[in-house]
Design brief:
Blueprint: H1 5-27, E1 33-40, H2 46-61, E2 65-68, E3 71-76, H3 79-92, E4 98-105, H4 106-109
Antiparallel strand pairs: 1-3, 1-4, 2-3
Length: 133
């Protein structure tokens, strides 16, 4: 079966169009997510302090960065990746205390405004993460 030049060009154009749309989807600021974990854990007993410390350390091991003492944040390349980390955090939650998880898009996160006191300086920029697929 012989193809004409027009049909080959149409097929190449369709492939290029599909590849372009996939690239736009991959880099779209509405698909990239940020996870915030807010928590208030009891620390009155030695056991409670140990569990709270373990929870914080486990968040750090999972790629979260401390934004404030009880607020941790993580970048996720996709909604699916965010869902995996939400499930992981749910498994880390101690028996007592309150933990909240907030998901925002990269576009929403881009509108964040941070303020620091007059005598304090901004937090140092965290390490750049490399995500391999």
């Amino acid at each position: 079966m012989e193809r004409t030049g027009g049909s080959v060009i149409r097929q190449l154009y369709r492939r290029k169009k599909i590849a372009d749309s996939m690239e736009q989807t991959r880099l779209n600021a509405y698909h990239i997510m940020w996870l915030f974990v807010f928590f208030d854990l009891p620390v009155t007993t030695k056991k409670e302090r140990r569990l709270a410390t373990r929870f914080r350390k486990d968040l750090l091991k999972d790629g979260f960065s401390m934004m404030q003492y009880s607020v941790y944040i993580r970048h996720c390349a996709s909604k699916e990746s965010a869902a995996v980390h939400v499930k992981r955090v749910k498994g880390l939650i101690p028996e007592k205390g309150q933990v909240s998880i907030l998901q925002v898009t990269d576009k929403q996160y881009g509108d964040i405004v941070n303020y620091w006191g007059r005598k304090s300086s901004p937090l140092p920029e965290g390490p750049k993460q490399l995500e391999l697929f």
